Automatic annotation (TrEMBL):
Keywords linked to the UniProt accession: Oxidoreductase
Protein's organism: Pseudomonas brassicacearum (strain NFM421)
InterPro entries: 2Fe-2S-bd_N (IPR042204), 2Fe-2S_ferredoxin-like_sf (IPR036010)
UniProt key word Manganese: no
The protein's name: (2Fe-2S)-binding protein
GO terms assigned for molecular function: iron-sulfur cluster binding; oxidoreductase activity
Length: 109
């Protein structure tokens, strides 16, 4: 059995979308994860450690390691390897720990 049918190119000219990364417009492959799209464009640094500022990048590509955290459309702590890429996304590196809104009084706990 040939393995050729198991592999396909990431994108063709007519199968791409546009996203913004750190204010820069990128043309990326469609129908892949955000992490794969960023890696395909040469983006290797997607976050900075909250402890020492060390750069992080996609590593496991399956949601286990949290090295690919980014901010997507203003929402922090998105695992880029689990987020499907879509046209118009605005992506920023996650720098340190994200500030999360405190629980609202009377909210579900």
């Amino acid at each position: 059995m040939s393995a050729d049918s198991l592999f396909r190119p990431l994108a063709s000219e007519d199968h791409t979308v546009h996203i913004e990364f750190e204010g820069r417009l990128l043309t990326v492959p469609a129908e892949v994860s955000l992490a794969a799209a960023l890696l395909a464009c040469g983006i290797r640094h997607t976050r900075e450690s909250a402890i020492n500022g060390r750069p992080g990048a996609p590593y496991c590509m399956m949601g286990a390691c949290f090295e690919c955290l980014v901010e997507v459309d203003g929402q922090a702590n998105a695992q880029a390897c689990l987020v499907p890429v879509r046209s118009g996304m605005r992506v920023r590196r996650q720098r340190g720990a994200a500030c999360l809104a405190p629980w609202q009084e009377g909210g579900d706990e």
